[in-house]
């Protein structure tokens, strides 16, 4: 397919024709994904069916992917399967978006043109966890290459902190207040 998923397409024609697109998009080609969270070179399968509903252009976007995220607890790899589907109203202007029903998600197709890769990236972002973490902290230790013996070892006790002299910067304030504000000269 010339231009691939990044090619700008006329969504009016796609909606009127009730077109269906099936694309495999490399994760690296999806715009706007946080590189610090997503590693690897996976692919996202996007199934997009266009149509019209309530006078609006609509795209039913289904994504299927096996991503490798970076766990924010251990900074190790964390596989995350994505299988999501949602309808999106395609609007051509901010005014159209304001006129859209509140319960619908909208995506701006400026001048009636849209990149399927950008649409897939938006939907993928909505499917990602806010903070990717392994469900079990044991998975973090395994991802970090820590042996289970370290995990199960008795906790090391910390030495007691050295006693420090307590500093009370306002210790003389009470005497000043009780003495009517008079100080010794």
Task: Describe the secondary structure blueprint for this structure.
Elements: E1 8-10, H1 11-16, E2 20-26, E3 38-39, E4 43-53, E5 56-70, E6 77-91, H2 94-99, E7 105-108, E8 113-115, H3 116-127, H4 137-143, H5 148-152, H6 173-178
Parallel strand pairs: 6-7
Antiparallel strand pairs: 1-8, 2-4, 3-5, 4-5, 5-6
Task: Describe this structure as you would to a colleague.
The structure is a single chain. The chain is of the alpha+beta class. Helix content is 23%, strand content 32%. The chain has helices at 11-16, 94-99, 116-127, 137-143, 148-152, 173-178, and strands at 8-10, 20-26, 38-39, 43-53, 56-70, 77-91, 105-108, 113-115. Strands 2, 3, 4, 5, 6 and 7 form a six-stranded mixed β-sheet that branches. Strands 1-8 form a two-stranded antiparallel ribbon. Strand 6 (77-91), helix 2 (94-99) and strand 7 form a beta-alpha-beta unit. The radius of gyration is 28 Å and the shape is elongated. The chain starts with 7 loop residues before the first strand and ends in a 7-residue tail after the last helix.
Summarize the structure.
By secondary structure, the protein is an alpha+beta fold. The chain has helices at 11-16, 94-99, 116-127, 137-143, 148-152, 173-178, and strands at 8-10, 20-26, 38-39, 43-53, 56-70, 77-91, 105-108, 113-115.
- What integer value in Å does the Rg equal? 28 Å
Query: How large a portion of the residues is in β-strands, by DSSP E?
Result: 25-35%
* Low-confidence spans: 147-159
Average pLDDT metric? 78
Total DSSP E strands: 8
Alpha carbon gap, first and last residue: 92 Å
The class by helix and strand makeup works out as: alpha+beta
Rough outline: elongated
**Helical percentage:** 10-25%
